[in-house]
Amino acid sequence: MAGGSRINISVLGTSFTIRADEDEAYLKRILWYLEKKIDETRQRTPIADPVKISILTSFYIIDELLREKARDGREAALPEESEEMERIALRLISEIDNAIDGNND
Questions:
Q1: What are residue 6's DSSP bridge partners?
Q2: How many CB atoms lie within 10 A of CB 31?
Q3: Which strand (E) or helix (H) includes residue 85?
Q4: Which residues pair with 7 in a beta bridge?
Q5: What CA–CA distance (Å, rounded) separates 24 from 82?
Q6: How far apart are CA 91 and CA 66, in angstroms?
Q7: Residues 15-38 pLDDT 10s
C-alpha cells in the first residue's frame, strides 16, 4: 500500500492512530499480541496503573524476545546474562508490587 497502513490503537486508556509501511493485517497482528501480553501481565500482578502495566509488559516482551534470539543463536546472550535479566525483572516486579502495597496503606 502506497503511503503505508493506518491502525487505531486503544490500549490502557490511551487511543491514537499510527501509520506504518507494513500492511494492515500485520499491524493488527502486532496489536493483538500486545493486548494479549497486557492481559497476561494483568493476570500476573495486581497492578492497576496503566504506565506500570505498560512498563512491566514491555519487560516481559523484551525478555521473551531476547530469550528467543539467544535460543536461535541470533543474539550472543550468555546464560549468565539471561539469568541476570530475569533476576532484574523479578526484582523490579517485586519493587513495583511493594510500592503499590505501600501506597494502599
A1: 19
A2: 16
A3: helix 79-103
A4: 18
A5: 34
A6: 18
A7: 999 888 888 899 899 999 999 999
Show the DSSP H helices in 15-103 as ranges.
Answer: 24-44, 50-71, 79-103
Instruction: Identify which of 32, 30, 23, 27 has the alpha carbon closest to the alpha carbon of residue 2.
Output: 23
Instruction: Determine the residue type at 19.
Output: R
> Residue 57: exposed, middle, or buried by beta-carbon count in 10 A (0-12, 13-18, 19+)?
buried
pTM score over 0.70: no
**Residues 46-100: tens digit of each pLDDT:** 889 999 999 999 989 988 888 888 777 766 555 666 677 667 777 766 666 666 6
- Residue holding cell 497486557? 38
**Residue found under cell 535460543:** 71
